[in-house]
Amino acid sequence: MAPIYTGKSNIEGTGCYAGRNIKKGELIGEYTGVFISEETADEQYTGTGATYLFMLDDGTVIDATDDPNPMKYINHSCDPNCEAIEEDGRIFVYAIADLKKGEELHYDYQLAADEEDTGLDCVCGASNCRGTMRGGD
What we know:
Elements: E1 4-8, E2 14-18, E3 27-31, E4 34-36, H1 38-45, E5 53-55, E6 61-63, E7 75-76, E8 82-87, E9 90-95, E10 104-107
Parallel strand pairs: 7-10
Antiparallel strand pairs: 1-2, 2-10, 3-9, 4-6, 5-6, 8-9
């Protein structure tokens, strides 16, 4: 896996950065944490601000809140340089472009949300920004 580190983000809060040059297609790392249900995530984190949750296709949620892995600090961007892929119930992040040492990592969250959900505005600053972290459909 590629070496990564955290620091102040150019997008939002804390970000995750490449510790060396990373080639397109290279595995950057795994998003790790405790596996919880969607209901538990909703009960624990609704209205709490920043969360470190990743929902799997089956509805299970990876809660990285207390996990020391820096992967949880990869921010959203509408013009991503990484991609999160689910493989056998785990999330792996791969580079979708050549990345230079010190470059901030980001992927498109493509969040699914009900109309009443708030707090999903995008602040990525990309020229193709959708204005939301919701999926592009």
